[in-house]
Every structure is written in C-alpha cells, then in structure tokens.
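Loading example: each entry is read as two labelled lines plus one structure line.
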Amino acid sequence: RKEVEQDPGPFNVPEGATVAFNCTYSNSASQSFFWYRQDCRKEPKLLMSVYSSGNEDGRFTAQLNRASQYISLLIRDSKLSDSATYLCVVMDTGRRALTFGSGTRLQVQP
Amino acid sequence: DAGVIQSPRHEVTEMGQEVTLRCKPISGHDYLFWYRQTMMRGLELLIYFNNNVPIDDSGMPEDRFSAKMPNASFSTLKIQPSEPRDSAVYFCASSFDSGLVQPQHFGDGTRLSIL
C-alpha cells in the first residue's frame, strides 16, 4: 500500500465548476500536510499548506482529518488555468523530506 | 531572486556512461533534497542534506547512485554506470529551517534519458 493515496483522475470539469480531491495517508506520524500543483513538464509548486482547523486561500479550501488520516482540497469556480496535476504531500515527524501522492489530474474545459 | 538552479536541463546518454546532475540551492537555504519522478513511481525522495551533511539516503536506489554537497551552494547527483531504468526527471529542492516547516522550492529538473 502506498504511503499517500490519491485518485489519479483525470477529473474533467467545465469552467466555474466546484471540484474536490481527496487523499489518504498511512503514516500516523505524519506531521505536516500540503497540496502541491504540477503543470505538465514543470516542477511541483506549493499550492497551500493544510492545517488541522482547515484553511482557505481564495477559491481553494483545504481540510485535514487526523483521526481518519484524510486530506481534501476543494476548488471553487474553477478556471482554465487550474488545469494541472494536484499532489497531496505529507511530511513525517522529525524528517524533513516530503512524501508525495501520485497526483490527481484536473482538466478544466471551456 | 534566483530560485533553485539545476543543470543540465536535458541529458541523453548511452547506458554505461557516467551521469552527473548539478544543483545550486537558494542562497541561505540549509536543506537540499534530490527527488526523482517517473510515470510508474511518481515523485520519490532519493537523499537529503542539512548544512551540507547527508541526513537520509534511504531512497538512493543502489550503489550506482551517489550524491555530494561540498559546500552550501552546490550539490551533485552522480549515476555510474547509468542504466535505461534510470531514465526519469530528477528534481533538486531546497528549504530553510526557521523552527517552523518551510515550503520546499524546486528547480526546473533535469530530464534524463539513458539509451
């Protein structure tokens, strides 16, 4: 079983739609959580950190459920420019390296 | 500000040859990471350094891979001898320690093809 599991998609949605991605992690020692975005043939870039209380950044909302070891990302009013692969990422206690999920591909269509 | 700089951007070579990938982290960053990305395995950590010292190399696939960080502004990842299964995109990333978890900044990657 992979340490971080994501639905690979692709998710094909029209502009303006709301889309949600889910992620589960297996290591209960995981301490920090992130969503990264990766465009085709580009490097991963931090989209947002995920906090226990949930957090929002414009059209993006991230949620964390430590008891269920579950992370989510909600994108509202999706734009064409949101088309990318979204990577769920965890960091273990005491270890600085990131563990990446395989990513969920989003394609927003006009 | 300059980001993480990797070279070369692309490398195509024949199996058995030595390959050296280079990385310059962001100035002031004391953590440096090497990741590899393939379609089959996704993004996976190979090794990371803190203050130029290797901390965790458990992701290095085998003895053919080695990494060094001779100073705070330079690191290399070497594959000798290279094999076709080493074909992947290799990313270098850096971050700094402020007592809080800081995001890692990735370079553009080196796209490696071993024929």
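The two ends of chain A are 37 Å apart (CA to CA).
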